[in-house]
Structure formats: C-alpha cells, structure tokens
Amino acid sequence: MYSLRNLTIKSFHEGLVEKKFSALEITQAFFSYIKETDKRIGAYLNLNEDGAVMAAERVDIALAQGESLGVLAGVPLAVKDNILIKSLPATAGSKSLENYIASYSAGVIQKLKKEKAIFLGKTNLDEFAMGASTENSGFHITRNPHDPTRVPGGSSGGSAAAVAAHMAIAALGSETGGSIRQPAGFCGVVGLKPTYGAVSRSGLIAMTSSLDQIGPITKTVEDAAFLFKSIAGQDVYDSTSVETSYGDELMNPTLQGVRNLTIGLPNEYFPKELDGEVGKAIEKVILDLETLKIKFKKISLPFTKYAIPCYYIIVPAEVSANLARFDGIRYSRIDEKRLNAKTLKEIYTRQRGEGFGTETKRRVILGTFVLSSGYYDAYYQKAQQVRSLIKNDFEQAFKQVDVILGPVSTTPAFKIGEKISDPYEMYLCDLFLSPSNLAGNPAISIPVKETVSQVQGDGKLPIGFQLIGKHFREADILAIGQYYEKIKR
Amino acid sequence: MPSPINKKLLKHLAELARIELNSREEERLSKDLQEILSHFEELQQLDTSEVKPMTGGTSLKNIFREDEERQNKYAGAGAEVFPEKEGGFLKVPPVFE
What we know:
The complex is a heterodimer of chains A (489) and B (97). By secondary structure, chain A is of the alpha/beta class. Chain A has helices at 9-17, 23-41, 49-64, 107-114, 157-164, 181-187, 221-231, 255-259, 276-291, 307-322, 336-339, 344-355, 358-370, 377-400, 423-427, 434-439, 474-486, and strands at residues 44-47, 76-80, 118-123, 170-175, 190-193, 213-218, 262-266, 295-299, 403-407, 443-447, 464-469. In chain A, helix 2 (23-41) runs antiparallel to helix 3 (49-64), helix 5 packs parallel to helix 6 and helix 10 (307-322) crosses helix 14. The radius of gyration of chain A is 22 Å and the shape is globular. The mean pLDDT of chain A is 94. The mean pLDDT of chain B is 86. Chains A and B meet through helix 10, helix 12, helix 13, helix 14 and helix 15 of A and helix 1 and helix 2 of B.
C-alpha cells in the first residue's frame, strides 16, 4: 500500500519500477484527493485531468514494454500558472489572461515532457508573480495548509501549498525576489531558486527579466536536486541561459565534501527585530550542522538594507516594459463592449484598466515613473548602481565562505489580510531574500526540523532557513541540505 | 527630495502606461506611490558616483549567430482566441483618429 503523503520523487520512482503501483493509479488518486482537499486550500487554478491520465497511461505502457525510465517518469507535478504548457490555460493569476491558451510549452516543460513527467494542473499565484501572499491573484486566495487563516506566502503560494497539502509530489515555481523560498518556508517544504541563467526562462511569462528564474518546490532536498537537474541547462530560446555542467555531486554529495565547506552567518540577517521563534529555530539549525563538523564564520553584507528600495525600483521598471505586451488584443478575448471602442488606444486603456489588479497597476505606473525623463537618473540608474554594490557584497563574502546561512522570513506565515492594505509592509517580506536575487546567486529554503508537524491544521507553523551559494554552485547548498535532512535528533 | 507625485503627474503616468484608472484608484495609487517613494530616499544617501550600474542579470557578452532563414513553428499561434480576423490578419480599430 502507498500513501500520497509519503510519496517523494524518489519513493514514487522506486514504487513504480517495482510495480507496487501504476502511474495511472497514482495520478487518479491525486485527482480524487485534490477534488476533496483543494476546496479548502485553493492551490490550483485549473486541472489537467485528461492530459495527465493519458500521459500516465503512456508511462505504464513504456514500463510494461521494458523501457528503462528516468526518475521523473510518471511523477505527478503541479506547475505555477505563469509557466506555459501547450494547449493549457496560462493566466499568470491575471483576469487579463483569463482566456489565454498557451501556444507552446516553456523550455522547462519540454525537458520534463521528455522525462515523461506528469502535469496535474496549474497553480495559483499573485498576479504576474507580484506579491508575497498569493492574495493578489485575480481569481481566488490560497490558504496555508498548516493554518487556513494564514497565507501560504507568495508569489508561488499555490505550488508550495499543493506540495505541502500532498496535492502533488513536487511542483515548479518561479522566483524574482523570494517567490519560491518564502512560500516554501511558510508551507514547510523545500524551495530552490537556481543561479540566474541556470534554467531557461523561455515560456515563463516575463515579470522582471533580469531576475526571474524557474525552480523546484519539493518535499525533500534530494527531490529538489532531481527536479533541478532535469530542468537546468542552456536553451536557444533564452539568450541569458548558459550551458551548465552539473555532475554527480548534485545527487551524491559526500560528507567529506560538506565538511570542507565554510558557512557564513551575516550580521545583517540576524537583526534584533527577528521573531523570537524564528531566531531560536535558526540557532537549532546551526547546532545541528555543527554536529556534521561544518565550520561557521561571522560575515557582513553591509548593503543588505538597501536591497528592498533597490529591488522595488528595478522590478517595477522592468514590469512596466514587460507588461506592455498585454495590450488587451493579442492574449485576450475582446468582448462586444470593447469592440465598440473607437480607437486602438481606447482598447488598450480599458482592457488594461479592467484586466489588471491593484498591485499590477501600482507597479506598472511606478515603473513608468522611475524610467521617465527627469527621474531616470535619480531612481532607475541609482538602483542599478546599488545593485552592483549588493552584488559586490556577495563577491566579497564568498571569498571568505562557501555558503551563507540565514532565515527565510522574519516571522512564520502571517494572517490573511494582515499586510494587503500596506504595499511597503508586503515588500519588506523580501528583506533576506531579494539581495541574493539581485546578485544572481542560487539559494534554497529548507524547513527547520520539528517546526513542521505531520498533523495539518494543528496551528503549528513551519519555519524555514535558507542557504545561499556561489554562482552555479547549487551542488554546495543541496549537499548541506541533503546532509541536514539525514541528521537524527 | 519632496515627493513629485501628485494627481496631475499620476494621470499623465497612467496615460503613458495605457491604464484607465477610476477616481478611487487615482486617490489610492497617488497615496501609495508617495509612500513607496519616501522609502527610496535612503538610496540617495549613498555615494555611487564611482559605481558602474549593473544592467542585467548576467555578465554574459553578446553571443552572435549567423543570420539564417528559419521556419517559424509558431506563426499564427494564439490567433484562435482573437474575435475578429480577416485574411490571416487580426482586425483592430484604427491607430489614428
């Protein structure tokens, strides 16, 4: 017998090849579980039942014919709804894309299709991935599976909640400034933001092109390594993607290798305001890692406090340019009322006025402002210079240490509605997250042991810690993470 | 630096951004933007006169390829959701009045 709860990518693969169950059986079990559970959570925006069932049948036939299958074959995945899967809706959580059907598949989806992975459906997000709570979705909110009165984090809140509530074995999210790590931390699952350029952005609905990256959300660090390995690599359709050579060390780290790493603890990531519980949880992680004989060193990332203003100038600037393509014509259906518009400009302004939510409008207009003549130097250019200083912080730190450790968020998941009326308060959620995005480094959010309870809805809230690595050194953070998981307490 | 955001500038920005706002939204966004910009003041304290701006996410240099003829696999894709078409083209109102 199997339980959906206990399935990881690894245990699913073992069960499948040992014929303990079929891919179809598990896929169907997931759909009935989702239909029963997701009414309470709201993780999915739409389901791909027909497509998933057909794909699962093909996996079972391949297995019956003796084909050797990769570790992702038949694995039921959830996909954030800003990642295109051909012939399925891709709304990016925006009303303006309510009727859009993807005409091609994202680079990562094409890779996963070759691996015969299965896509259960598309998950909820803050509109165009802008937000830290999934409350900005144009469709509905998503609830934290550990406490339904709290947010799952965001913007990949649907993907994190789906994995945490066992409505998928693993998921894809996307991150611009913490959007994978923060919801993973709030939901008690693992989230990896790869190095900028490690994973193709082709077919990811662009928000901030110089920051956006797709990455895995999983139950274990090992699963994150499996999923990352399969989506990494150059893609001709993303000119910023690079050829990567991740060898055996991603999947088979050695304890000696881990012991050779030095972990840096930045003063700036442990401020006085840090929630007491979060502080205690991170201390436990450090003690646990010390039992592995890993060395720690105190470091400083002095420009950390400038990251939020820097990030919230660069992001809206790029948002205002990237969202210009949503003209209300190319990706949407125009209703009769709008067909009566006399000029093209009227279609643009009305469609965008009606189709975009408050945060999207706020960022597009703010971005238009920081890029406008007379303000460009004071805001946009300044932010780009500060971004260089923040990147330099990491370059200096990584001369002394191999990995940086810190909390993901200052507090556990907050209440639904708590921050939605104060945009800057919401922006502060990215405090420890956006610096590594601006610098392009890989980073992983891992649940602190004993903060994730097996009983959902008992009010116990998960707390995450993060490990930040050198560029293209996902292997280091995944290695420490995999050994952390093995520690028995 | 006093906040440059006022209703008049906001209306102008909304027009440039091609977003129709109702008066309630104008009120709210004007307030929000003033508040957000006040947090950006902190950056002005930093002397960045010697700092080169970081203009993208990578340090990759331009990569060139031969300009060869290629088949576009996706031509016409997405047109199926468009309400008005004529001879393979999408029909929209005139750009100029």
